[in-house]
């Protein structure tokens, strides 16, 4: 079985632009979470979706948005990019969002904002 | 607020030596506990987890961790480190109820000398 897949793997944007990152969860997993990892830091929670509904939102500005599709894949959108948005964006999937669940992470999308 | 502390930013060991990475958390109740490893440019891979039961848990790649409720700790250990263990290690904590969002520590970078 394929693991969590993310695309693109690397991308470079300029300030003010918009970016869309994509994530396909492990087959059978219904929950997707997004994390931002700045160099030298641990992952910071952005969003969690389960069954296409938002179940959690971290402390990020409204420039960050996400959605989950009927096939449980997900997109993370970031508008009006700032230099500080440069980071590794990690997607993780799990069967559900409650109980004894374990997150399985993708390899991430490396965003550089110039 | 819940928090996870990994007090060591960097740890350097010689190949073949033993290893202990520290993790402390501050929560009101026993949480779910995880250790993840991240190789350069990669996503996070689960090493082991504690949900309940035996407080000494075994993981992949020869790692183990011990949950000590009295010390609010979940330290990761390995008896003999291999050069391939050089990576970033993250402790994560999640409550059994309420928010199901894992909180990650800032990570410990393991350097292995030959």
What are the main properties of this structure?
heterodimer, A: 114 residues, mainly beta, Immunoglobulin-like, seven-stranded mixed β-sheet, B: 114 residues, six-stranded mixed β-sheet, four-stranded antiparallel β-sheet
Low-confidence stretches of chain B: none
Percentage of β-strand residues of chain B: over 45%
Number of helix segments of chain B? Answer: 0
Give the chain pair forming the largest contact, with residue counts: A-B, 27 and 23 residues
Helical proportion of chain B, percent range:
under 10%
State the end-to-end CA separation of chain A. 37 Å
Explained architecture:
The complex is a heterodimer of chains A (114) and B (114). Chain A is mainly beta and 114 residues long. Helix content of chain A is 0%, strand content 50%. Chain A has strands at 5-7, 10-13, 19-24, 31-37, 44-50, 53-57, 64-68, 74-78, 87-94, 104-105, 109-113. In chain A, a hairpin with a 2-residue loop joins β5 and β6. By secondary structure, chain B is an all-beta fold. Chain B has one domain: Immunoglobulins (Immunoglobulin-like, Sandwich). Chain B has strands at 3-5, 10-14, 19-21, 24-26, 32-38, 44-50, 56-58, 64-68, 73-78, 87-94, 103-104, 108-113. In chain B, strands 2, 5, 6, 10, 11 and 12 form a six-stranded mixed sheet that branches. A four-stranded antiparallel sheet of chain B has the order 3-9-8-7, with no helix packed on it. In chain B, strands 1-4 form a two-stranded antiparallel sheet. Chain B is globular and about 45 Å long. Chain B starts with a strand and ends with a strand. The model of chain B has no long low-confidence stretch (mean pLDDT 92). Chain A binds chain B through residues 4, 33, 35, 40-45, 48, 55-56, 58, 90, 92, 97-98, 100-108, 110, and chain B through 4, 6, 32, 34, 36, 41-46, 49, 51, 90, 99-107.
């Amino acid at each position: 079985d394929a693991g969590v897949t993310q695309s693109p793997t690397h991308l470079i944007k300029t300030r003010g632009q918009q970016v869309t990152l994509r994530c396909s969860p492990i087959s059978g997993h219904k929950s997707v979470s997004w994390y931002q990892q700045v160099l030298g830091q641990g992952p910071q929670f952005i969003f969690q979706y389960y069954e296409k509904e938002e179940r959690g939102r971290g402390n990020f500005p409204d420039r960050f948005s996400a959605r989950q599709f009927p096939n449980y894949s997900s997109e993370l959108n970031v508008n009006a990019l700032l230099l500080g948005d440069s980071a590794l964006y990690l997607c993780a999937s799990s069967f559900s969002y409650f109980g004894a669940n374990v997150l399985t992470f993708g390899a991430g999308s490396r965003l550089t904002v110039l | 607020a819940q928090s996870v502390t990994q007090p060591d930013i960097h740890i350097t060991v010689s190949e073949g030596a033993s290893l202990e990475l520290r993790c402390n958390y501050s929560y009101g109740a026993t949480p779910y506990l995880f250790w993840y490893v991240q190789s350069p440019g990669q996503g996070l891979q689960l090493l082991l987890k504690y949900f309940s039961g035996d407080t000494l848990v075994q993981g992949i790649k020869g790692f183990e961790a011990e949950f000590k409720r009295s010390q609010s700790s979940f330290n990761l250990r390995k008896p003999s480190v291999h050069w391939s263990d050089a990576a970033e290690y993250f402790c994560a904590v999640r409550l059994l109820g309420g928010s199901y969002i894992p909180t990650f520590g800032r990570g410990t970078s393991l350097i292995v000398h030959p």
